[in-house]
Amino acid sequence: MQAATIGLEHFLIVGMLLFVAGLFTVVTRRNAIGILMGVELILNSANINYVAFARYSGGHDGQIFSVFVIMLAAAEAAIGLAIVLGIYRTFETIDVEATDVLRG
Amino acid sequence: MIYAVLFYLVAAFTVACAAGVALSRNVVYSAFALMGALFGTAGMFAFLGADFVATVQVLVYVGGILVLTLFAIMLTHQISEVRVSNRSVAAVPAAVLIAAVAGVLLLAILRAPWKTIDPTAPQATTYAIGELFLGRFLLPFELASIVLLTALVGAIVLSRKELRG
Amino acid sequence: MSHPIEVDWIRWIILAPLIGAAINGFFGVRIQRSLGRPAVGVVACLPVLVSFVLAVAVLVKLLSLEPAERFLLDDMSRWIHVGSLRVNLAWWADPLSSTMLLVVTGIGGLIHLFSYGYMDEEPSLWRFFAYLNLFMAAMLTLVLGDSLLTLFVGWEGVGLCSYALIGFWYKELANARAAMKAFVVNRIGDFGFVLGMFSLFWLLDDHGQGTLVFRELAGRVHLLEGMTVLGFAAPVFITLMFFVGASGKSAQIPLYVWLPDAMAGPTPVSALIHAATMVTAGVYMIARLNFLFDMAPATLFVVASVGTATAIVAATIGVAQWDIKKVLAYSTVSQLGVMFIAMGVGAYEAGIFHLFTHAFFKACLFLGSGSIIHALHHEQDMRNMGGLRRHMPVTFATFFVSTIAIAGIPPFAGFFSKDEILWKAFSSPLGSPVFWAIGSIAAGFTAFYMFRQVFLVFFGEYRGGHATHGHHDHDVHGAHGHGAHVPHESPAMLTLPLVVLAAGAVFAGFLNVPGAIDVFGVTPHLFNDWLAPVMAPETLGHGAHGAHGALAEAEAVLHHVEHDPMEYLLMALSVCVAFGGIALAWLVYARQAISADRFAGVLGGVPYRVVFNKYYVDEIYEATVVRGTVALARGLAAFDRVVVDGTVNGTATLVRGLARMDGAFDRIVVDGAVNLVGAISLWLGNRARSLQTGHVYSYLYAIVVGVAVVLVTRLF
User: How does residue B80 score in pLDDT terms, banded at 50, 70 and 90?
Assistant: First the structure.
């Protein structure tokens, strides 16, 4: 198996890049749905790390955790998008800049 | 060799799609780029011998979450961000800051003395994961179902029209 | 026990109605629109016919085997194999399940036929039949499942279908509520079932013998001896939990309240689900687990007591009802109580036999009432009926025969089955004369209210015809309501099942003639002998254990003292009680020699009002369970207000007093300093306020910066 040529670091770097892209999305987007997509990217990067560590340390626990993360992502997406729709009904927009009722 | 090339191709595709999610100004394009990134992640899982997780990734993320996201986009008509004139959310400082975070992470990845074992040949994992879910991880598994149920009810309550009385 | 014979066709008994349900459920709308209503009916009835034929095949196959080897197994596939749990999708046919099979498929088939005629005005016929077929599949799963888990799947399935069918006309709020009530009350029972199942598996697993498969359980339950759960002996605890489940499904005190409300569903549904099959699931389950219940005499006593109480309570309520279906509903509850008496005194065969005969005459009574309701355009109040004997002769004849059967007049079916139970309640080592006495009184009440119903509905003059039409004439119902204020006999589609069921009500009893009677030249105890391999512990492959052995011996002794003169005496007594009830009903409602109001007025009318209002059980539950929850919340709120708030307020007052004294000092000395600090804070606060932007992304920025700082400081 040539798997040896692809080390753990390769996967960690892919995960890191996904994380960075997600973080950038979350921070710069003004569209609430866009922000949620960024969060999905971050969760995916965490998942890659989990599975990679599971692969390079034996056992299946990391995979179990990644399934739990996917489950939580599903719950988060359902609730998050419901909240976004609620915001849209109230403010007629989902621009996070326009929804600053909690401004100090 | 082919394995390595394939890996780099999939990895590049994943990262490119992730960059698309981050940089596209149109949310619909972002969503489709997200689909690519999610498929790419599933590919990563496949490279890691995690067939079950890869399948779940495709089923739940691509089949469920992404479709939900697209629905939300359509329902809110906020397809394009061009309408926004002043990007008060400055991209440049964000990029600098995040590049710093990336650099630190990269440093950590490369410098850390990872204790790894040589991975064994990949085997089908579904049975083992099923045993674990109904054995050692039974309680978290059942709690997960409660969380999902709660999320389901919560989403319905949040998104329904207000009833009078 | 020898190895069961493996076959591979029993599965089709379940799969056929399931396929029918799928076809009608998914494509029913289109079938009904393009091919017409008969096509929907054929799709629904054909699978039940297939099931019935296969059920007969099972019976024939079993009869061809030696009594001790009458077991068929259809191991369809692996289902759950995890940890030490091994459950297959396997179907198990022995004399007990075969009996239930015939009841479910036979009576179910007749009711399908009846439904097609009865629902002739229903626009969503396909939905009705899809539910009904799904119910058949679930009920057959319950009956054929070879493990507690598969039984439970069917158990929940029938509960779901019952919910869907009670609320079939869901546009009426009352129907939806009745469905919800049935579902919630059943949940309470199911909770007990699940707990019982868990503890059974868990305790056996302690010995490394965990299983839920019946044929394995039979040989392993003796391991439970000496174990305790929460201070109860393990078998007692487990069986009590199962009994909670059974009392939910089979409508026993205190969980019977859903069944009368369940009459909101279409009448064929009441006949099939809420009289003949589903509600007997609890009885079946106890009979199936007889080896376990035998180990717990304490539970058996509870079962018999609850059964007795239910029988008498429901019978007395039945006396004061005016709704034709409500009377039958309470009668069903009462008869189920009688079956539970049989279970509780260890006379499982007698209980199952009563289940068998009851299915015939109660289904016939319900379908008869359906025929009447159909002819009278959904009139259900018996005060608006009367004289139907002349207008609906077939319905009258079948209804009358079934009424005689349920009243316990020999030689009709009910007499044999009920008398067997009463005799066992009296003579079994687990029984007592109290059970017998109360059971007999309940039987007298049954005879009374059933004949009251017959006299009110079929005799005298027709009292309807004015109020009944009016509000129905404007819609489709008017099609055969024009001018004719006199009801007509129902079409053959409705009367044919009635005739078949009435025949069953007449002759089914001869399958189990008591030993004391051999005048009819029929072999006695055919039915008991048929079920013996399932019930008698020694054939199940393990030696006599404790209570088991004692019971088996007691049974053996009983077999010999069968011709106890006492049995004749009790038999005669119960027949007299039945005739007494009938005579009273005749005097009050047919001859009207005694005014019904005089009964109502006894003791200032208190007993009548109590009975008429169903012992106020619904009100009591409302007042205790529902209000109790609300009151608890109120009480906690009051506690919060008075005690917690009081403490807080008291403290506050105290502090305030102190503060006043302090205040003077404060104003003069400290204020100067504070004002300075305050001014600085205000200035700072105004600057800091801009941090709280209300923008999500600015918070995110802060988080990212924080993470970056932490990472950098940790790494370098």
Answer: low
Domain contains A101: no
Cross-strand bridge partners of residue C228: C233
Domain CATH code at residue A58: 1.10.287.3510
Note the ipTM here: 0.87
Q: Do C382 and C455 contact (CB within 8 A), yes or no? A: no
Tens of pLDDT, residues B82-110? 454 444 456 777 888 888 888 888 888 88
Residues near B80 by beta carbon (within 8 Å), at least 6 away in sequence = B25, B26, B27
In a domain, A102, yes or no: no
Mutation target to probe the B interface, by most B beta carbons within 10 A, among C202, C693, C711, C713 is C711
Task: Give the tens place of pLDDT for each residue, C339-376.
Answer: 999 999 988 989 999 999 999 999 999 999 999 988 88
Binary contact (B72, A84; C-beta < 8 A): yes
Sign of CA dihedral C349, C350, C355, C357: positive
* Chain C residue numbers touching B105 (CB-CB < 8 A): 711
Residues of chain A neighbouring C696 (CB-CB closer than 8 A): 32, 35, 96
How far apart, in whole angstroms, are the C-alpha atoms of residue C219 and residue C395?
Answer: 49
Q: At C607, list the tokens.
A: 């007993």
Q: How far apart are CA C158 and CA C135, in angstroms?
A: 6
One-character DSSP codes across C477-534: GGGGTSS--S--PPPHHHHHHHHHHHHHHHHGGGGG--TT--TT-PPTTHHHHHHHHH
- What is the pTM assigned to this prediction? 0.73
**Cβ B108–C707 below 8 Å, yes or no?**
no
Residues spanned by the domain of A17: 8-94
**Which residues of A make CB contacts under 8 Å with C?**
23, 26-30, 32, 35, 96-97, 99-104
Count of domains for chain A:
1
CA distance to A26, B136, B145, per residue, from B139 (Å): 33, 8, 10
> What confidence tier does C685 reach under pLDDT thresholds 50, 70, 90?
confident
A30 located within any domain: yes
Residue A68 lies in a domain: yes
Contact yes or no for C152/C192 (Cβ under 8 A): no
- Joined tokens for residue C633: 């919340």
